[in-house]
Amino acid sequence: VADNLTWLANIARDRGDLEKARALQTRGFLIRQKLAPHALGLAGDLGGLGLVAEEEGNLEKAITLHSEALAIERRMAPTGMDAANTLANLCRLARRRGSLAKAQEFCLQALAIQKRAASDGLHLAQILADLGDVASDRGDVASSQRYYLQAVKMLAPIAPLSSAYIAPLAELAKVSLGEGRLDAAAAYYQRALESLENQTAHLGGSNDI
Known about the structure:
By secondary structure, the chain is mostly helical. It contains ten helices and no strands. Helix 5 packs antiparallel against helix 6 (100-117), helix 7 runs antiparallel to helix 8 (141-155) and helix 8 (141-155) runs antiparallel to helix 9 (163-178). The relative contact order is 0.07. The model is unreliable at 205-209 (pLDDT under 50).
């Protein structure tokens, strides 16, 4: 029952019905807490509530919920993909708050888990792109460029029409432009534009760069 409530909560959140999503996720959490108080699924429920809080703009609450989820995951499955995903969420939230050192720490921990687990390239590339964003915010141009290049290289053969691929290309173009490398910037923008146009034609995507 709790798993079904989580599934319905995810649908409600995707549709923008955050109140319903929170109610469904809370019901699932309370059921799981009563029947299986030591289950790893509790962390998933807390993470789901954290995503709702983030979309509502309550970053402090979102961080608290994801941190509680991470505590459970570190106790029960410290090298699991659930922990990696929670760390990635905390990286994103810390960056939004401007806590860049903490954001980098979370992302590097997530990256280490992903690498050890030999996870699929899409999730690994997303963390690399997140690290690129954090480095860019810190003014570390060399590191941001390195992370973005790694993400693009990883995504090119597996998700060339995805927004995950387009975003670091656009960031590489900005970096190149800032360094005065106009030809390189134009080349990155061209690759991003071609990917976006193909995405729109084949997948019905929208302009997100």
